[in-house]
Specification:
The protein is of the alpha+beta class and 71 residues long. Helix content is 30%, strand content 35%. The chain contains 1 helix and 3 strands. A 3-stranded antiparallel β-sheet has the order 1-2-3, with no helix packed on it. The longest helix is centred in the N-terminal third of the chain and has 21 residues. The chain is flat and about 50 Å long.
């Protein structure tokens, strides 16, 4: 019984590794059905001494449609 579980775990790990290495990191893009593609999402956060945060977000998005109500 244990050997059967180990076989399934091994196959699962091999599949995850194949997926991770088959797709280069530079080609990832978040897509949605909203008519846009997010190519880059950069967050810069500074933690101040008074426990406040200064956060800057930069989003690079390409719109396939003229409307873009969610970004």
């Amino acid at each position: 019984m244990k050997k059967q579980y180990l076989k399934y775990i091994f196959v699962f790990i091999v599949l995850i590794l194949l997926i991770m290495f088959a797709i280069p990191n530079k080609t990832f893009a978040l897509t949605s059905s909203g008519g846009y593609t997010i190519e880059n999402y950069d967050i810069n956060m500074i933690v101040n001494e008074d426990n406040t945060f200064d956060i800057t977000e930069r989003i690079t998005a390409y719109f396939e449609e003229s409307r873009h109500r969610y970004i």
